[in-house]
Amino acid sequence: MKTIRVIAIKEVREIFRDGRFRAASATVLVLLLAAFAAGWKHQADVDAQHRAAQMETREQWVSQGEKNPHSAAHYGVYAFLPRNMLSMVDTGVYPYTGVAVWLEAHRQNGLLHRPAQDGTTIQRFGQLTAATVLQLLIPLMIILLAFGAYAGERERGTLTQLFSLGIDRRKLAVGKALGVSTALAMLLVPAAFAGVAALMSTSGSGELAGNTARILAMAAAYLLYFGVFVALSIGISAWTSSSRSALLILLSFWIANGLVAPRLVSEVAATVWPTPSSVEFNAALDADLADRTEMDAELERVREELLAAHGVSDLSELPVNFLGLSFQAGEDHANAVFDEHWNGLFDTFERQNGLQKKLSFVAPVLAIRSLSMALAGADFSHHRDFVDAAEGYRRDLQRRLNAEIESHPVAPGETYLADAELWEAIPTFEYRAPGVGWVLRNHVWSLVVLGVWFGVSILACSTAARRVRPV
Amino acid sequence: MLKAKGLTKRYNGTVALDSLDLEIGPGEVFCLLGANGAGKTTTINLFLNFVEPTSGTATINGLDVTQHPIETKKSVAYIPEQVMLYRNLTGIENLEYFSALAGHTYPSLALLGFLDQAGLDQDAAARRMAVYSKGMRQKVGIAIAIAKKAGALLLDEPTSGLDPKASNEFSELLKKLSASGVAVLMATHDLFRAKETGTRVGIMKHGQLVAAHETKDLGHQDLERIYLEHMRD
């Protein structure tokens, strides 16, 4: 252990005396803090806007005055997607999926106001988030720190000096890995503290405590990811004959991992599981909604049964308001169509994501990207969970309003009007995102992939380090 | 202390070292002379187990270097033609690092003492290796050997490229070390330095040790004559 410590301390000392490292780490630190700051500002703004909008929509709902419940159903309410505090680190699919949904009668709407729609042209080239820095720039920095670990020493001649001491090769490799990791930690730990401070300032210590498990899981996943790069960089450095070759191989891997694989795998997933355009989707949805033959027949059957059961010949003589039943039948018909189309679309997205997850063994970034956005509550599964919850609320709301109409029969020509008592009795939409256990269960494969990458990298590093020849 | 028995190394059929038999005891300085490619560096690399022998054995303190690669290196110090150290560390930091890896932890004062013994003053010790001359680096190499308390020294052209003064200082240091019981095997082209420093000289040619003499029996001119005779064949 002492030997490992001595090697690690020397590595850190050398790294910190290297002006290139100081410049690179300052750049990465600035980028990371800038990403945190941008995320913090955005999160604070969005939270404030959502809180205000949510209060306003509730206020509008309860103060809409006397109104037929079906008119209120068309008036509708907005549900706002609450962002997990960790989406400050990883925005995931959030910029592309919208932030609010209008919950109205007869229609399951998609989410509105996608942040990406408001983006400038330059933002389309890529948004700087802490996740981008962690997934792309930190690995690049690890490569720059470690590519010369062995190859550089061999070129400078210090490796023969080292090996003439009878040093244990495994300890040398571990010491070098620990040195690189320590140097990296000196950069990341202050950034992590800044990040936690930012999280606390936007969300408060209560929400922070509630997300502790997510934060720890995210930190562990990123450590595993960085570990892959540390082990791989040192292994390649030990395996190659020159630092130039080591750098070339590692940079090629970095490009393949960070830039090529994500796009390639997305394309493959979209080709295998194609999704309709929004025009096609809406056209198919509207066509099925318009086909009311079955629903009308069912409604007619219910009408006949009701009239017979109550021994009356006209709907106005019924002890219930048939309009309420009719509206609900319309909802039930539409809900079945929505389930088929929206679930079909979402299932396709899930299949695309599933295929991407399965293919993540080709590049560790795919696994960490998937885990990171899930732990930040910003992946598609979280989006779907919110959409399902909002849709569930919409259907309950419609059912309640239609039941209210049904229980208030009116004379022909009259309309039942409900007042604030009913509006206030309807609860506000509250959404709680699933817990970390749900996330991890959904991402077992990503965890396995990261674990396998880590294990293989360690094995490769260990084998290469054992075979290093000083001359 | 250092012993080679039938030590042979072939690279793809080319003989680099052919059945070397050699024994160097404590206090002896054996200088290996020979042209480039004669097998001097191969001999040292075999003692360091940097390359595997094709046949024969190299032992240090009775231990086979291939079977005990770590233990045998604990009692030997190596100084190559160019002592290469870490540019971003100072002389004393390099010494501290290599000593610690060899299993010796010393206070700063002791480290400065080793550097002083090797001929490096305190000011130089505090400077980064990037500004060191070759002579200064060789002195740090000697200091590492002293701090390691090595019983044997393997030197591969250690004075090559040094100015006469630095070369002479280096020889004096070697003499001091051998006087303290250290066994030294030095590969060199420098006949004068070999005669001055060595207790024995061996001449290598095409991987074979073709001659070995006690230096006390030879004058400078004798050594030069013998060497040239062997090179002429």
Find the biggest chain interface. A-B, 24 and 31 residues
From the N-terminal CA to the C-terminal CA of chain A, the straight-line distance is 27 Å
Low-confidence stretches of chain A: 120-125
Structural class of chain A: mainly alpha
Could you say how many structural domains of chain A there are in total?
Answer: 1
Structural summary, described in words:
The complex is a heterodimer of chains A (about 475) and B (about 230). Chain A has about 475 residues and is mainly α. Chain A has one domain. In chain A, strands 1-2-3 form a 3-stranded antiparallel β-sheet. In chain A, helix 8 runs antiparallel to helix 9. The mean pLDDT of chain B is about 90. In chain B, a hairpin with a 2-residue loop joins strand 4 and strand 5. The two termini of chain B are about 35 Å apart. Chain B has about 230 residues and is an alpha/beta fold.
What structural keywords apply?
A: mainly alpha, three-stranded antiparallel β-sheet, 3 strands, 2% strand, B: 233 residues, alpha/beta, 2 domains, 9 helices
